[in-house]
Amino acid sequence: MIASPNSRRVRVLAGVAVLAFVYSYVQIRSRWGQPPFGYAHGYYESVTSYFSGPIYYNNTLYTEDTEGLVDKYYNSSNPCASFPGTDGILLVMKTGATEVYDRIPTHLLTTLTCLPDFLLFSDMEQQVGPYHVYDALAEFDESAKAHNADFDLYRDQKECPVSQKSCVDAKTDGQKAWNLDKYKFLPMMEQTWRMRPGRDWYIFAEADTYVFWANIVHWLRERSHLNPREKIYLGSRSFIGGSSFAHGGSGYIISGTLLKHLIQHHPGVVKQYNVRGANECCGDLMLALALEEYEGVQVRQTWPMINGEKPSTLPYGPGHWCEPILTMHHMNAEEISGVWQFEQTRKTDRTLMIKDLYHGLIAPKMQVMRENWDNLSDDVCYINPDPEAQERADGQARERQKNKDEMNEVEKEAWKSSENCRKVCASEDVPDDEDWDRRRVMARRAGDPATANNTEIAEDTSPSDATARDTWKSLMNEKKRNRTCFQYRWHDEVCCTSRSFKLGAPKTPPGDDDVKAKWKSGWDLKGINDWIEAMGECKEPAWKTPEL
Ligand SMILES: *[C@@H]1O[C@H](CO)[C@@H](O)[C@H](O)[C@H]1NC(C)=O
Ligand SMILES: *[C@@H]1O[C@H](CO)[C@@H](O)[C@H](O)[C@H]1NC(C)=O
Ligand SMILES: *[C@@H]1O[C@H](CO)[C@@H](O)[C@H](O)[C@H]1NC(C)=O
Ligand SMILES: CC(=O)N[C@H]1CO[C@H](CO)[C@@H](O)[C@@H]1O
């Protein structure tokens, strides 16, 4: 194109304007540091240091119980200092238009501040500050959407002239958002590969999933011995109708090679599953079906490292202790922020294990008993044998009743009151070390007849006191580790106990103040602390090998 005289004039003028601007900038700039503009510079510095300067607060997680674990102050000036490099690993987070502003900002304030790149998908194109949220369903077949009521919300959302919050009815639209959600999974795979091809690993998460980046990166690169050039699909395994799949909310991991094959080698897969969606319950299941059908790949079980619980519902105890944690689920904004703060203020950077979550976040909240509380105890139940009471109890509790012939005396009475229920756990308590000496003295005073039928004290007759004490101690230690009752819940003649310890959540009975209707939950703190002590330090984090 030949420039017209007019456009030449415009260019000359523009050039003059730029020169004039640069000249005046240099003039002002050079004078800034000196009087008479010095005061302005000083003012500027004090303002910026207010906004970016020492960001140093009381650490709200710091208590008497946690002083050995977390710093007293929270220095948030360099949040990514010990964040791992995430080259080759991409986070893909999925949410919905009705919840994105409730859920995404907290991620953006915490873990996502340290990720150089990630993708956000929803069921509508949206913008959160500088972050774009992609519509996973944008390319969905019009014909497949047209007569499908699951897409009502999708259509309504687009027509909402104000904020989504003002258009939706929180109660009914929760179900609608869930119905729509399953259609996003496979289109999201396609768009992810198109926008960010060739990564080693893709980590898929929901907006209520928390990812422990230091652990997940360290594990994928150094510990798992998994090769992203192989077809790999990792997650917390669930089953529906005999098909296994990685539970979506817990987060799941797909190797770049597997994603590439699924999307590039089978151009029809997304379309086919879009149509099929109407007949399947869930998107995470559909993804697994597609991976199995087209690639012959099944999910490898990575639980409990990839986990569907959160700190207050994790069943701490056997199998949930020395295991490192990679993800958690059902995390609300407050919980995400709290766990991030814990990660940021830990006094150590060694691998974060499940027990660390207990010590840092849960132990300070443990107490002997809470009323109107459901501690999620439901491993073994004891219910009033009376048919009417049996009828009243909920089905799950009924199924988990202990066989009457296997019950001891304490267990037989357990349903009668919360106090009786508590005794089921208390009866597993083990004497402390100091008791050894007291018992010896008592046994000596009492003479042989009293000790004859007590095996623990009878060991006193062994050649050396020291050996006997050690034997006794290790027996007690084994008993501490063998404990099967850590906590109980009592409600309306139903006593249930748990083989793990968890914090749970408030639970209020509807309406009345009936004592029987109150939910009471209690923890055998001595038993819990004995078990923890008997477990000792974890020698090594118990990394899990993902199995088929
Ligand atoms: C920090 O905690 C101390 C007491 O532990 C309290 O006196 C002080 O006011 C707190 N500081 C801030 C900024 O909240
Ligand atoms: C907070 O951290 C920054 C960067 O790591 C460091 O330079 C600063 O000295 C720390 N502040 C305090 C009060 O420790
Ligand atoms: C602990 O449990 C194991 C396995 O169930 C059992 O063999 C052992 O006798 C138990 N030990 C004690 C001291 O109860
Ligand atoms: C949160 C939760 O799982 N609560 C459960 C506690 O136990 C009762 C009775 O078994 C269940 O109905 C709740 O769902």
From TrEMBL:
Q: Where is the composition biased (Polar residues)?
A: 451-465
Keywords carried by this UniProt record = Membrane, Signal-anchor, Transmembrane, Transmembrane helix
Annotated Gene Ontology cellular component terms: membrane
Stretch list, region Disordered: 385-413, 444-468
Give the principal location in a single coarse category: membrane
Could you tell me the membrane topology recorded for this protein? Single-pass type II membrane protein
| Compositionally biased residues, Basic and acidic residues | 389-413
Which cellular compartments is it found in? Membrane
Report the domain of life of the source organism. Eukaryota
Alphabetized InterPro entries for the sequence: C1GALT1/C1GALT1_chp1
The family this protein is said to belong to: Belongs to the glycosyltransferase 31 family. Beta3-Gal-T subfamily.
What protein is this chain from?
Uu.00g097170.m01.CDS01
Species name? Anthostomella pinea
